[in-house]
Amino acid sequence: MATEFLSWRREHDPNGRTQFGFPWLLQSGEAILTAVVDVVDPTSTTIDAATDLVVDNVTFGQVLSGKYGVSFWVTGGTAGTDYTIRCRIETTLSPISNKTDYTGVLRCRQL
After folding, report:
1. Which domains are seen in the chain, by residue range?
2. For the segment 7-56, what is each residue's pLDDT rounded down to a tens digit?
3. 0.90 exceeded by the pTM?
4. What is the DSSP letter of 2?
5. How far apart, in whole angstroms, are the C-alpha atoms of residue 25 and residue 8?
6. 45 three-state secondary structure
């Protein structure tokens, strides 16, 4: 069974610094408490400690009513490589918080 991941239209140049984001649709009154973005192994979704793609400056917030976004920047990487990026959030859903993941494929190409 194949897993369908988000794929960004824009590619990352390994010599540059590029901003990407994950969209989130939350319930009324719900907000993002924490957001972590990691490069993961696509077959196991464990963090890829050997990756040469660097993720930093993760921010999050509301962009429209009920719609939230998690933004992050990437540097490095190897041209011709597709990286699996996981965004893991925790929200304010009551009575217990909601923890969920969203995964995407980021293409690194020499531009």
Report:
1. 17-108 (2.60.40)
2. 888 999 999 999 999 999 888 888 899 999 999 998 888 999 889 999 99
3. no
4. P
5. 18
6. coil
